[in-house]
Amino acid sequence: MVQAAALPRNEVGIETAVGILQQKFGDRLQTGQAIREQHGHTTTWIENQSPDAVVYPHSTEEVSEIVQTCAQHKVPVIAFGTGTSLEGHVNAPAGGISVDMMQMNKVLAVHASDLDCVVQPGVTREDLNTYLRDQGLFFPIDPGANASLGGMAATRASGTNAVRYGTMKDNVLSLEAVMPDGQIIRTGHRAKKSSAGYDLARLLIGAEGTLGIITEITLRLQGIPEAITSARCSFSTVDAACQAVMMTIQYGVPVARIELLDEMSVKAANAYSGLSLPETPLLLLEFHGSDAGAAEQAETFGQIAEEFGGTDFAATSTTEERNKLWQARHDMYWASLQLRPGARGISTDVCVPISRLAECVTATREKAEDLGLLAPIVGHVGDGNFHTLLLIDMDNPDEVTKADGFVGWLNDLAISMDGTCTGEHGIGQGKRPYLVKELGSAVHFMAAIKQALDPDNIMNPGKILPGSEP
Fold it and tell me: What is the pTM of this model?
């Protein structure tokens, strides 16, 4: 597998910066091994690379102080949220300071009449929606994990609702950020659109902390729908399920969620979440609107599914039943691990145009079977994005080699279909080898931007760009 190589360390600078920050932050700076390992944590196969210290700021000004100190001594700075990323984003390959943003967790303002709010980066998506509930509003981006909104912006997260509501780049109005020299900038205000200068917000969204640390976010909100209807439908093959997805999108049904589980994933969900679904490929859907509108959308999908052999179609507007289905979907990572106890889960994602979805998913299943790999598939298939979780015995070199080849093959396949090597996981460390394959010479211009803003490469080094060493 792709290994996270260690980068050269600035030992003197790190020691000096840790000492200065210890004096400023006291017990809000920690150097214990367990804490440091937690902040190099990754939920996938990439080796843990711990920072030298973890500091917990309470304000933008404190983040600025941290970055200024690190910039002065050329010490790496890695922003940390909830640690749910999958491609080694929070590792510290050159050591340095992990800036844990989770104590900056206030909802600063809600402007209900304008459908927006202002939050600190440590607010999680679940906390925000709990805060908003009595105002009839919600924030729709749902990556599954209860991620921090700062981390979601930094990785350009999306998730189950993206087919209707878009991704983080579509739902952020403006940002406040601390740049590599410690300066604090704002990328805009609360206006719903602007033609004023370069779009720095979109530059920072998805930059994975390599250009700056996000310290405040102004978000678009949505009104809670009058009615929500969920539906499920089983199919004889993954291809048939994908064909139904394609027809639903092309027909213009305003579906809010449309998720695929292959038969292995359904089996895992049944066992882990106590469900009794038919163990064949499954689509889970959700429709938002008025009572009549949501019901009509579900009925239309049912008719489309029938054309592709869909069976056991069922729709419900009962909150308890809806939540049970979607909680099972969100628990799929942990459920899938139970298919092979003791195996390591290597999660990878790609995204292709919706017209190539059935072909790509079918080829992926066939390739995994040919290699003898256990690889359940789930996906936000309404926008052509799906995830494959390889369940690998990491002590078996043959399996590891096969998995390595499979991941490379899948990324190449998606790119060849005019798709992307990652729909939402991001590049981090794990997907760096595929970025040039996908974007070619555009990567040189990314590197030029990085060099211009962060000439000493202290902001999350070793991520995204190939060869980004200090």
Answer: 0.94
pLDDT digits (tens, 9 = 90+) for 171-187: 999 999 999 999 999 99
Task: Judge whether residue 386 has pLDDT over 50.
Answer: yes
Give the chain's end-to-end CA distance (angstroms, integer). Answer: 24
Please check the confidence at residue 241 and state whether its pLDDT lies above 70: yes
CB pairs under 8 A, 24+ apart, for 364-368?
Answer: 364/388, 364/410, 364/413, 365/238, 365/262, 367/406, 367/409, 367/410, 368/406
Q: 428 and 43 in contact (C-beta within 8 Å)?
A: no
Gap between the Cα atoms of 227 and 292, Å rounded = 8
Q: Give me the residue label for tokens 């991520």.
A: 463
Return the pLDDT at 166.
95
Q: What distance in Å separates the CA atoms of residue 394 and residue 324, rounded to the nearest whole number?
A: 33
Quote the CA–CA distance of 13 and 94 in Å, as a whole number. 12
The predicted structure's pLDDT at residue 2:
56
Q: Using an 8 Å Cβ cutoff, are 259 and 164 in contact? A: no
User: How many angstroms separate the CA atoms of 47 and 40, rounded?
Assistant: 9
**For position 48, what pLDDT does the model report?**
92
